[in-house]
Amino acid sequence: MKKKNQIRYSAWNEHLNNTRERTNYSIRRMDLLIISISGAGIYIIFETLREFKAGRVEFDYSGILLISGLCFLVAIISNFISQKTGYYSNDYEEKFICIELNKIRGKDIDACKQDEYDRKVKKYNRITNSLNIASIILMFFGLILLALFNFNLF
């Protein structure tokens, strides 16, 4: 392999390794926060309902509590779906990079397949980003509604 191609190959190989690392990192961090906070919000709602059922607390704004719980639940569900779309995006990016590495090695490649992978990467990235934004917004909306509900208790 020529020196120029070796440099390009090394750069793409490094990019592939970084993509794999980003995949693992992205799966762990923000999603963990969204799931934890939304799960805690749902737990607080269930505890509030348990106290209400036992007659220890009374409240007038049950709709706020219900909407807050639904926001937390949908935040968790959209986060789970974004995990899957994020996986697809990174999987197609790995396939794209492998074709690029083969091209640098001088092997015959299927350019149409590479373009298809690139389109799928972009598509799943858009979906994943939208779902992540929706999860974050729903989590914050659920928190705000839960805070308003608790404020109205006092």
TrEMBL record:
Domain of life of the source: Bacteria
Entry keyword set: Membrane, Transmembrane, Transmembrane helix
TM regions (residue ranges): 30-49, 61-81, 129-151
Name listed for the protein in its UniProt record: Uncharacterized protein
